[in-house]
Design goal:
By secondary structure, the protein is α/β, with parallel strands linked by helices. Helix content is 38%, strand content 24%. It has an eight-stranded mixed sheet with strand order 1-4-3-2-5-6-8-7, with helices on both faces. Pfam families: Methyltransf_12 (PF08242).
């Protein structure tokens, strides 16, 4: 069952729109193959097992997904309850519709939202929130777009978890082919991570959480943070 939360975000910067425009219906049909079987293991040197393990150990009964992609990871996650409540938040109606259809066997709510703005969901209303492969698509440095982590934290209950992943440009190993693809995607406006580095991500997590884990696999940073109970 899917419901839609009527909300129109404030006017959005064109670079933000460009970062999500590539995820149109035709592209979404191939996204899982291209990303989780292609670029992630081959170019970014991060196995899909890493993402699946993070979801399996982090997702809660009431979950907020920021930047929903295709819902690939959510469909492969074992939730702690049989009837989880999932909020899908994204600027792109195509990705919201695609993912909601894929998760039709769960109770989902679609919300059109910009992660750079306060989210149109009640404060402390979710057990977990994920920002998976989102931040490298958002313009600005991590010192600026790290506000998305704060907005995710605001939506999570005390004791809840915020987790995610992002492809970094610096502070992590990047293969020659990975650097070529990263630069190509930045030139096209699909990626906006040319200023993203590991230390800035660590600083953003420190600003928002006292307790967090940050690890790298290839060019990908994976993080999990716990909100104080």
């Amino acid at each position: 069952m899917t419901s839609t939360h009527d909300h129109q975000p404030d006017p959005v910067d064109q670079e933000v729109l460009d970062g999500q425009a590539a995820y149109h219906p035709r592209a979404l049909a191939f996204y899982d193959l291209v990303v989780f079987r292609g670029s992630a293991p081959l170019f970014w040197r991060c196995s899909p097992r890493n993402f699946l393990q993070m979801y399996a150990t982090s997702v809660g009964a009431s979950h907020l997904e920021l930047g929903v992609g295709t819902g690939y990871l959510l469909t492969r996650t074992r939730f702690p309850v049989s009837n989880p409540k999932i909020t899908l938040a994204d600027l792109n109606p195509s990705t919201l519709d695609f993912t909601a259809r894929r998760l039709a066997f769960y109770e989902t709510t679609k919300v059109v939202a910009n992660a750079l703005e306060p989210l149109p969901v009640p404060a402390e209303s979710h057990d977990s929130a994920a920002l998976s492969f989102l931040l490298h698509c958002v313009p600005g440095s991590l010192r600026e777009k790290g506000v998305a982590i704060r907005h995710a934290a605001a939506a999570v209950r005390p004791g809840g978890t915020v987790f995610g992943s992002t492809i970094l440009y610096a502070g992590v190993p990047v293969t020659r082919s990975g650097r070529w693809l990263m630069n190509n995607l930045n030139d096209k406006g699909v990626f906006h991570n040319s200023e993203d580095n590991l230390e800035d991500l660590r600083d953003q997590l420190k600003q928002n959480f006292d307790d967090f884990d940050l690890v790298t696999r290839g060019s990908v940073a994976l993080f999990r943070a716990r909100k104080p109970a």
